[in-house]
Design goal:
single chain, about 260 residues, mainly alpha, three-stranded antiparallel beta sheet, 11 helices, about 60% helix, disordered C terminus
């Protein structure tokens, strides 16, 4: 009857993951629907809510390059043309490049993403109810990932149970049916989350996602400078159509949330 122990383990894994996802969804639904509605997102704020600190650094680099105040070479190097930053983000980038005025883009991006200016931006968005707090561990996105892992675990446990000897009076189809129940639970939770709380974001709260939705239709990589930068803020550098500018970012390291 070892398969019974595997079944209990499958139920435990599925139940814990689905409970976590449900709690995260309840917290998301409890947010005031009018929160942040009057807030007009800046490009930096849109970049943070879409892709986090790394996206803010990317946007700053691209914005300065478009204004010819920073040269981004296709070899992955950044060169300062105008050393006077117009805001805190730009000054962070210039400071990360260093006094020599030239540096590989990857370390510049990492330093700018962890600068005080980005942390201050994140704090303001959290206070406004538009961003997920950095220490939050029960977000919908994390819950969905755990339920997906639980579904795989249940499937694996079911296969292991079916590969083991079972009592002669216990049909294997019945064993498979018992494991199908926790699998159905996880898949149902994923389907409901897909309908009710999609898209999932580790950065933007539901209120922040609503504001981002209003910017999406304005994103156009072939538009004017403002529209182009909106595209970078919302979609990232992968949306850039200019070959040289896009090639400049091929050597960068992705930012990971600590």
């Amino acid at each position: 009857m070892f398969w019974v122990l595997l079944l209990l383990l499958a139920w435990a894994v599925a139940g814990a993951a689905c409970t976590r996802l449900c709690l995260a969804a309840v917290r998301a639904a409890a947010v005031d629907p009018d929160q942040g509605r009057e807030h007009d997102l800046t490009l930096y704020e849109a970049a943070f809510l879409s892709g986090g600190p790394g996206r803010v650094a990317d946007l700053t680099l691209v914005s300065m390059a478009r204004q010819r105040r920073l040269l981004l070479a296709h070899t992955g190097w950044a060169t300062v043309v105008d050393p006077r930053g117009r805001d805190e983000m730009e000054r962070s980038v210039i400071g990360a490049i260093g006094p020599e005025g030239q540096s590989p883009i990857a370390p510049v991006r990492t330093a700018a993403a962890t600068a005080d200016a980005v942390r201050g931006l994140a704090d303001r968005l959290v206070r406004a109810g538009l961003a997920v707090p950095d220490g939050a561990r029960t977000t919908v996105a994390a819950g969905v990932r755990q339920v997906r892992a639980a579904a795989v675990a249940v499937l694996v446990l079911g296969c292991v149970a079916l590969s083991m000897p079972v009592p002669s009076d216990m049909p294997r189809t019945l064993v498979a049916l018992w494991f199908a129940l926790p699998l159905a639970l996880t898949l149902s939770c994923l389907a409901i989350a897909r309908v009710e709380v999609h898209p999932y974001s580790p950065w933007a709260s539901p209120a922040g996602q609503r504001l981002l939705g209003a910017l999406t239709h304005r994103a156009d990589p072939d538009g004017d400078d403002r529209t182009f930068l909106t595209t970078v803020a919302v979609r990232g550098v992968r949306a850039i159509t200019e070959p040289d500018l896009r090639a400049a970012f091929t050597h960068r390291e992705p930012y990971r949330r600590g």
